[in-house]
Design a protein that fits this description.
This protein has 221 residues and is mainly alpha-helical. It has a domain at 35-146. Helix content is 85%, strand content 0%. The protein has 10 helices and no strands. The chain has helices spanning 2-7, 10-16, 20-55, 60-73, 79-95, 99-110, 113-128, 132-181, 187-191, 193-216. α3 (20-55) crosses α4, α3 packs antiparallel against α8 (132-181) and α6 (99-110) runs antiparallel to α7. The radius of gyration is 25 Å and the shape is elongated. The two termini are 36 Å apart. 19% of the residues are buried.
Length: 221
């Protein structure tokens, strides 16, 4: 669509389709990051349940099973973490696998640092024979606070990301409107070599501005 809009040429449109290959990788990275964020929010709620269950005297396998059931009741927003916790509980029930190893496996597969840290703290407590209840409660408290701060920061950044998206779309929308309502004003840009150079520069600037905006709003917390 951009190729047709900026050049009014089917060949340019087909050539622009080649950009879908690198854009697909960018989209996959974006989708993976969104899924990690969803998993992290679900894990935050699960930590409340786990810490409460451990404080009430439950063992970790029972607390994880309870957190999985609670996450499942929360609906689609906690679907990923509910499935993972249910898998851990099922593995423990069927094979009595080590909960620490299962949690570390979840942290490794998810790529979420907070899950890795909780798993490491639990595994260290198992190996060293520490106070499991105290370690779980303190670790959960620290991670919940950290996740809450990240959520607040992401809420502020999301508005700036929306601003970048709107500013990137506006020139394209204006160009589309002029093509529909007053093509004669733009004819020189499509029918002359100098005009095509100008359109190419405009397209390059729009793309660069959008990528720059995405980069400056991508803050690791």
């Amino acid at each position: 669509m951009l190729g047709l809009l900026f050049y009014r040429s089917a060949y340019a449109g087909l050539a622009a389709c080649l950009a879908s290959f690198p854009l697909e990788r960018i989209y996959q990275s974006f989708a993976a990051e969104k899924r990690r964020e969803t998993l992290l929010r679900g894990f935050k709620d699960a930590l409340y349940t786990i810490s409460g269950a451990v404080a009430a005297g439950r063992q970790m396998p029972s607390a994880i099973a309870l957190a999985g059931k609670s996450a499942e009741q929360n609906g689609a927003a906690s679907g990923d973490i509910a499935a993972e916790l249910a898998y851990i509980a099922e593995r423990y029930e069927s094979t009595h696998a080590d909960i620490g190893i299962l949690l570390e496996d979840l942290g490794r597969r998810s790529g979420v640092p907070e899950i890795k840290q909780f798993a490491s703290a639990y595994a260290a407590c198992q190996r060293c024979g520490g106070d499991l209840e105290e370690v779980c409660l303190k670790t959960a408290e620290l991670l919940i606070g950290r996740i809450s701060v990240r959520d607040e920061a992401r809420a502020l950044i999301s508005q700036k990301k929306l601003d970048v998206l709107l500013l990137s779309i506006m020139p394209v929308a204006v160009l589309a409107g002029l093509n529909i309502l007053g093509y004669s004003y733009l004819a020189v840009l499509y029918e002359t070599a100098a005009g095509r150079v100008v359109m190419s520069l405009c397209l390059a600037l729009i793309v660069c501005a959008m990528l720059w905006g995405i980069r400056i709003t991508k803050i690791d917390l």
